[in-house]
Amino acid sequence: MTYDLSMSHQSPTTKMQAVETTTTLKSVTSSRLVRTLVAGSFAALLAGCATDAPQDTWQPKGSNARMINDLDWVVFSIAGVVGVVVFSVLAFALWKYRDRGQPIPEQTHGKPALEIGLTILPALILVGIAIPTVGTIMDLAETNDTECIVNVTGQQWWWEIDYPVQDGCGGIEEPIVTSGQMVIEAGTKVLVRGTSRDVIHSWWIPSLNGKRDMVPGRIHTVRLEADEPGIFAGQCTEFCGLSHANMRMEVIAMNSTDFAIWKANQVQDYVAPVAGSLAAEGESTFISQCSRCHQVDGLTDSNDELIISRPDQNVWSGAAPNLTNFMTRNTFAGASWDLLSKECRPGVWDASPSTIGAAYLDGVTDSCLNEVELREWLRNAPAKKPMYTDPESLEATNGLVRGMPYLALSEDQIDQLVAYLLERK
Amino acid sequence: MFTTGSKLLIGSSVFALVAAVVYGVTQNEALGIVGLVSAACALAFLAGVNVWAGDSNLSALDTAAVATSEASDDPPGASIWPMVFAVGAAAVLVGLVSQQSVFTIGLVILLAAGAQWAVQAWAESASTDSTTNAAVRGRLANPLEYPLLGAFAVGGIAYALSRIMLWLSKTNTIIAFVVLATIIACIAFIFAARPSLKRGAIGGVLTVGAVAIVAGGVAAGVDGQRYIHVYETIAADAALVCNSPEEFEVDEGASQTVSTKAGTYTISLTAAGTLEFDVPGPVAEGSDAISLRRSNPNNIVFRNDSGEARRLTLDFGPAPEDEASAAAEEGYGADESHGADESHGDKSDRNLTCTSLVEDGGAQLITVKFAEPSFAYADDAEAYRFYVPGTDAEIDVVVP
Ligand SMILES: [Cu+2]
Q1: What ipTM did this prediction achieve?
Q2: Do A221 and A301 lie in a common domain?
Q3: Is position B194 within any domain?
Q4: Do A201 and A214 touch, CB atoms closer than 8 A?
Q5: Peptide bond into A157 cis (omega under 30)
Q6: Do the Cβ atoms of A218 and B400 come within 8 Å?
Q7: Best residue in A213, A218, A314 for a mutation probing chain B (most B CBs within 10 Å)
Q8: Binning pLDDT at 50, 70 and 90, where does residue B281 land?
Q9: Which of A19, A295, B273, B326 is deepest in the core (most CB within 10 A)?
Q10: Among B291, B365, B366, which would you mutate to test the A interface (most chain A Cβ atoms within 10 Å of its Cβ)?
């Protein structure tokens, strides 16, 4: 283009050369651009091919996620056809009518038939997309076919999961409280009833259903159903502060026999460690150091009085994970770290649908404990997971921590606590 | 004839002379006098040269050139901003050692004056013509000044109106504002009907109105607001109120409707006199007890269909001995001081919270928070139970 200015008073030959130079320049830049584009889109394509992608929205593992997935295909296909048509026409017009120095064509205006047609056509397409979309939204909001109710409560930065007393879930007579991992029966229509204790969190198990924001003071419902036994990973998807990225969760689906075993185990009476054992020392350390925040159901003090934790007096959200059956779960601290060692993990996580329930029910045994990371947690939790626990900076929360604070435990105390926790199953 | 430069030099030389005299009288020392007198002479000489030659390399005799030289440009106009800036700076310093509000105001003044000063100085160097410079200044500063000043004006008027409203009684406020709105509408009609009206007239009317409102606001603000009755809260007397179906002061004028329709629990008192609960999700949960979360503000709508005015009461367990633990166990909204002991002898030994009286067909929201699980009160039949005083209706609460 810049040549044009000087061309007017140049001889025809120089003009020719000038034009040539421009074309070569153009083709150099455009071929480089094309190469970059091709490489870029290829890389993007490859990035979509991760094999180990447990949170892939395109791999539904239950009826609700499948409804979303089916709708996705309809919408994306229609959008794809529209996209291809629009871009082809555009490309054709750009190429056919590119500037070759020809005079500007006659400018016309107003073609009612075309304009009305081009308004009605997209409207029809949108209506066509809206019908299945609204239908899916309604189906996903259905709650009357519920067979089991599970409460989830988000707080910085973990999910509490509890099973209210009900006829559903095969009957729950005593409430069950756990954290990070929700156990359900495969093939059962579960209704999650969620809320939050502090800020907005969002519950999302991609292979089972879409996201649902959990707003403090409100109760939100979301359906879950797993086709087959398995472990389904999820993630808090509403930015909720410092450790948002470490606020994960899993749903474990098992067959009805295994689920019944799990339920029965969760409400079993507390069994105190054998007197004189390391775990027994752990129990008293736990009472002095931990039970002000963490509830262990059935734990009693020296006067045989039940010990009731008061996380509301220690933690900003008012809650800390219930550790009664800690070793029946296999991840901890917002499902962000494994309780199972590297060697034992695949035995549960990669188990087939027919064996996964039993494998999960084995819980975390002495030999399978991921002791290193659990010890790191007890040694200095905020160093492992960023949390607001620095005593210097708790003015905004009246001295209450958000997360688990550093407790200055000795290595001996940690030994005792690990031994004690190992028996919580 | 005296250029800026010559004035400076003449002044300096006179100053040096005066200094020499003062020095001579007070110090009695020769060297200083010699220096100062020499300086005076040198400056006087320079002044002479300057007067003769003009400020630039021009001959003072060349009048045409002198008239167009830079030195003959209009000097910058007087500016108030340096002074305001100084006031701001002083306020900042005073504020640092006294009060934060003074500091903040000072900082705002400092920034505003600084900005104005900078814009003015910049505009004054735009050209040699002061009208052009003023226009340049306006173009840069007005888009910021007008909205800010407008916001201040609107804020001031709104604040004045609020003072007037708070000063008038509830009924008079309504009357006054109906009248005011009518007047404004009439004036607007007149303006609209007569587009030929002079701008000055419109501006005048608006100014008079604004001044009247601000003046009214100042007067009302000085006189103080009307008496507003402070109602007791339930917490002040929970033990008495929550156990009774009677009406108390707290129940007067209590809201009977709830705007929340979804996303909460509902407990209804039916015509049959029983308590039933409804939760988001399926209704038939198969339990006589309502499960509520621990350590979580549970919002519950109480709906009364019983035909009589009723309240919903929650028993949290035995009343704690010390006030400190009581505060921790109270429901939300029950945060007023504890007056139960002094005002009434009828002190219950239970820790209660409740709604105010809800008329038949009405609804009210109650927010309850349980610090402890219900098994902590397993052997207390009264604890963790909703009931309706004056009836047998009750439901248990399970808190995991
Ligand atoms: Cu979150």
Answers
A1: 0.79
A2: no
A3: yes
A4: yes
A5: yes
A6: no
A7: A218
A8: confident
A9: A295
A10: B291
Q: Are residues A283 and A416 in the same domain?
A: yes
Domain for residue A353, yes or no?
Answer: yes
Q: Given a cut of 80, is residue B4 above it in pLDDT? A: no
Write the pLDDT tens digit of every residue in A286-334.
999 999 999 999 999 989 899 999 999 999 999 999 999 999 999 999 9
| End residue of a domain, out of B183, B200, B223 | B223
Residues B269 and B366 in one domain: yes
Q: Which two tokens stand for residue B194?
A: 């007569």
Option in A144, A306, A319 nearest B376 (CB): A306
Min Cα separation A417/chain B (Å): 24
Mean pLDDT within B24-31: 84
Structural domains of chain B, count = 3
Residues B295 and B369 grouped into a single domain: yes
How far B149 CA lies from chain A's nearest CA (Å)?
35
- Residues B299 and B258 grouped into a single domain: yes
**What's the A179 CA to ligand 1 centre distance in angstroms?**
14
Q: Please, is B99 exposed, middle or buried when counting C-beta atoms within 10 Å of its C-beta (0-12, 13-18, 19+)?
A: exposed
Angle between helices B81-97 and B100-124 (to 10 degrees): 160
Top-confidence residue, A47 or B190: B190
> Tokens 């007056």, residue?
B339
Q: What is the pTM of this model?
A: 0.71
Examine the domain organization and report whether B203 and B303 are in the same domain. no
Does residue A287 sit in the same domain as residue A413?
yes
Q: CA angle at residue B290 from B289 to B292, to 5 degrees? A: 135
**A132 lies in which domain range?**
18-45+53-95+112-140
Whether residue B263 is found in the same domain as residue B391: yes
How far, in Å, CA of A212 to CA of A201, rounded? 9
Whether A12 maps to a domain, the answer reads no
Question: Does B395 lie at the interface with A, CB-CB under 8 angstroms?
Answer: no
Count CB pairs under 8 A between chains A and B. 94
Compute the distance from residue A393 Cα to the ligand 1 centre, in Å.
21
Task: Kindly state whether residue B106 falls inside one of the protein's structural domains.
Answer: no
Shortest Cα distance, chain A CAs vs residue B292, angstroms: 8
CB nearest to B295's CB, from A175, A297, A318: A318
* A362 found inside a domain: yes
Give Cα B346 to chain centroid, integer Å: 44
A104 belongs to a structural domain: no
N- to C-terminal Cα separation, chain A: 77
Residue recorded with tokens 């509490």: A160
Of B287, B297, B299, the CB nearest to A166: B287
